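A student in our group prepared the protein record below, which I am reviewing. What it holds is a sequence and that sequence's fold in token form. My question to you is simply how this chain folds and whether the tokens agree. Do not assume that whoever made the record got everything right. I have pasted the whole thing underneath without changing anything:
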Amino acid sequence: MTITDMLPPDVEPGDALYIVDKDLNLVYTNEDWRRFALENKGRKILGEGWNPNVLDNMSGKQRQRWSHIYRLLLAGRLPHHQESFNCSSPVERRIYRLRITPKEDASGKVAWLVHHTLTVDERRDAVARVGKRLRELEDPDRVTHEYRSRVIRRRIRIPGFETARHFEPLDDIGGDVLWHREYAQGPTDLVHADAMGHGTASGLLATRIVVLLDEMAVQEEGPGRTVSALNRAMLEIADDDQVQFATGLFFRFDSRGQRLRCSNFGHHGPMFSRSGQIRVENGPAVGLSDELESWPETELDLAEHGTRFLVFSDGITEQFDIEGEMFGHDRLLRAFRKHLERPLADMVAGIVEDLSDFRGEALIKDDQTLLAVDFVGPGE
């Protein structure tokens, strides 16, 4: 029997890193991978005493974790699994992205688990550079300083567009984020994010997100892949005993025209002057799991939807009045259209005034962020 006879029918030798059968026994390894292993860790990986059953080469929590993952894959309860791992040589730091795909036999049962390497993620080094400083952000006074200097004081400038905002944390610091980056002779990125929780904990997460975006966002990659990089970075620096996540929208503006790209990570869609609130294809919140190589992207044509639009946190739409009624998306849209003909900053002030009138004596219970954007003409 040749090696080809042992592989899934649609997988050629060389296409995969390694393949295991339904009993988790190794049936194929890529020759380049074997050569790298022998050159760098040699007998520890492929030498005497190495067992062809992948679980038998693990112990403790690592074995328990991978046993669970493989069990879900073999049962068909996971369409695939992917994560990053370190496979460095003595002279080169190498971070790979592993993807495990179940393959069925003729009877329709999972018979193989094919392990592919997708990409080398060089930005993990960027996470390492900022990780130590991020972990030092534990003192409440320091978190407050970082939040106010990095998050609240940023002036949002997008060539070709006018912006106006209302940005009110519930406490001294909050979990809402407005971040942007203008690339020289290129597009501008804008992120509105809402970190889970309130107070110092959410302010810490919001500050971490801004610091990571400063490192992760590059012109060469679009919103979807940048959100994926942010997600992996958040998982990398997460505290072991806490689950922290954020929802939001990542926009990329082209100052030369009225089209922009948007990646949605678990947030509600923007609200446009012509179309009202629109649905933007949704990916999961960031910071929860490492399942997507790239978040979905939607292209928005302002000529179709309207040249003025709003992004907002749920602290706006989920504000209650004294009777327990919620402001909601419909009221926000009515307020938006009511003040639409006013200058942008006046329009935002009018919406906030309507929200305050609705709230009356009721308490504000969440951070409130409202950003208005208007296309004013091609930028330089």
